[in-house]
From TrEMBL:
Domain Helicase ATP-binding intervals: 43-190
Keywords for this protein: ATP-binding, Helicase, Hydrolase, Nucleotide-binding
Domain of life from the UniProt record: Bacteria
PANTHER family given in the database record: DNA ANNEALING HELICASE AND ENDONUCLEASE ZRANB3 FAMILY MEMBER, SWI_SNF-RELATED MATRIX-ASSOCIATED ACTIN-DEPENDENT REGULATOR OF CHROMATIN SUBFAMILY A-LIKE PROTEIN 1
InterPro entries tied to this protein: Helicase_ATP-bd (IPR014001), Helicase_C-like (IPR001650), P-loop_NTPase (IPR027417)
Keyword Lipid biosynthesis: no
Name the UniProt record assigns to this protein: Helicase
Helicase C-terminal domain residues: 282-440
Protein species of origin: Billgrantia tianxiuensis
Organism ancestry: Bacteria, Pseudomonadati, Pseudomonadota, Gammaproteobacteria, Oceanospirillales
Keyword ATP-binding recorded: yes
GO molecular-function term, one example from the UniProt record: hydrolase activity
Length: 462
């Protein structure tokens, strides 16, 4: 490879320049509960960046960081910042922000004269005028991962002129790098197509199978670390992990008998049609097993995850004291059920990962059960992390009830889990030094040099 081409690549991979503002580290926050050292450094870095992403593991305080960031942006710009959050999370965001001294108003339509920090649900985002806001925060921004989705396209286009943008999620999608391109495009760092052309090559005709170019690997991670922080533990950024060691997670697998297949052997359902049929045939057995498990610990709060309305209907009939949330429910009913589960008036909550599997803090609960699995590892990961997250004081028990005939789903989920762990490890391995320099440098306070006397040079210098 000739020198001229290497110089051309070097010029093309310029790091995105910060577009935000600096504040003194001691001034980060609003007088409520103090942020942890690593949180304060990340907020200061993100403010200096202006447009940034925080990929922080569940329970590391994304809500505290994003609301503090939003408060400082609103104060600096003399305007308003809008936080978009998943269903049922907006109220928790408002309550959590209050602990840290940030006033956040929950709204479902455009305020008459927006000032300060607001939070709304993604479902309500069309009701707001982007030009009226100085900043926007996407909570659980993995909603952008569907590249062709209408929601993704609308959010990127509507908010592309907003000067301050923050993207927050627990972890990028485990099975492809394209979600990083979505985040980059939302933040105005680099377009998806440009990122893929610069750093990636794709295998064969499947355009979703992208891999990093060998000679561009280091440049890619360096570019990513300039605008994103990926943190599994505070030690990833050089801080102390005290208070961030999770209690044990116990995964219990229960297999019910299945008649799917021939008379002698149970077959493993492979196609989507076969899996649906196998699930239908084992519905009653799986639900009965979940009800049995819940009945064994009547003093515990239980979070029951399902994937179909048929499962939800039968679970509700089989488990006393249970309350179900489904997609067709009114927003207020969903919020009432979630709040009831949080305050203890609802002991058993039945719902789907697609409805309540992202963003909610449910550490008061240490028992959950899945009445089966689907192929979405991300949904299962997020569902488990509603309870098993930093801040959980007890060991968590998660029961997975499946059928022998659904083994292919379990294998697929386990494969994606390994992919996620490998991707996270690779990201941190490549980015840790660069991230530490970026974030730690944001916390360095430099005294201004203000000379008060003219310098007199000795005669021999002249």
């Amino acid at each position: 490879m000739n020198v001229e081409y290497l110089e051309f690549v070097k010029r093309k991979t310029k790091l995105d320049e910060p577009s935000g503002f600096d504040i003194h580290e001691a001034d980060v926050g609003f007088g409520g509960m103090p942020l942890k050292d690593f949180q304060r450094h990340i907020v200061k870095w993100a403010l200096r960046r202006g447009r940034a992403a925080t990929f922080a593991n569940t329970g590391l305080g994304k809500t505290a960081m994003q609301t503090t960031w939003a408060g400082h942006v609103a104060e600096h710009a003399g305007g308003a910042v809008l936080i978009a959050a998943p269903l049922c999370v907006a109220r928790q965001t408002q309550q959590e922000a209050k602990k840290f001294g940030v006033h956040v108003e929950y709204v479902r339509e455009m305020p008459a004269d927006p000032q300060g920090v607001y939070v709304t649900n993604y479902e309500m985002l069309d009701e707001f005028e982007p030009e009226a806001f100085a900043g926007v925060v996407l909570d659980e921004s993995s909603i952008l991962k569907n590249r062709d989705g209408k929601t993704r396209t609308r959010i990127i286009n509507d908010w592309k002129r907003c000067p301050y943008r923050l993207s927050c999620t627990a972890t990028p999608s485990p099975n492809d790098y394209m979600e990083l391109g979505n985040q980059s495009e939302f933040l105005g760092i680099m377009g998806m197509d440009e990122m893929l052309a610069m750093f990636f090559t794709h295998d064969g005709g499947d355009t979703s199978k992208w891999r990093l170019k060998g000679h561009g690997r280091k440049k890619f991670w360096q570019w990513l670390a300039s605008w994103a922080v990926t943190i599994r533990l505070p030690s990833d950024l050089g801080f102390d992990d005290t208070g961030y060691i999770l209690p044990a997670l116990h995964m219990h697998e229960h297999l019910v008998a299945s008649q799917y297949g021939d008379d002698m052997f149970t077959s493993i359902a492979q196609s989507l049609t076969e899996r649906r049929q196998a699930k239908k045939e084992t519905l009653e057995q799986r639900v009965a097993k979940v009800a049995e498990i819940v009945a064994q610990e009547p003093g515990e709060s239980w979070l029951i995850w399902c994937h179909t309305n048929d499962e939800a209907d039968l679970l509700r009939k089989s488990i006393p004291e249970s309350v179900e949330i489904r997609g067709s429910d009114h927003l207020l009913r969903k919020e009432d059920a979630i709040n009831g589960f949080l305050d203890g008036t609802v002991r058993v909550l039945i719902t789907k990962p697609s409805i309540a599997g992202m963003g909610l803090n449910l550490q008061h609960c240490a028992r959950m059960a899945f009445v089966g699995l689907d192929d979405s590892f991300e949904q299962m990961y997020q569902a488990v992390r509603r309870c098993w997250r930093f801040g959980q004081a007890r060991e968590v028990h998660s029961h997975i009830v499946s059928a022998e005939s659904l083994g292919a789903i379990k294998a697929n989920v386990e494969s994606k889990e390994r992919q996620m762990e490998a991707m996270q490890a690779s990201m941190v391995e490549h980015m840790v030094g660069m991230m530490q320099r970026e974030v730690q440098s944001a916390g360095v306070e430099k005294a201004e040099y203000n000379p008060t006397q003219d310098m007199v040079l000795p005669a021999w210098v002249a």
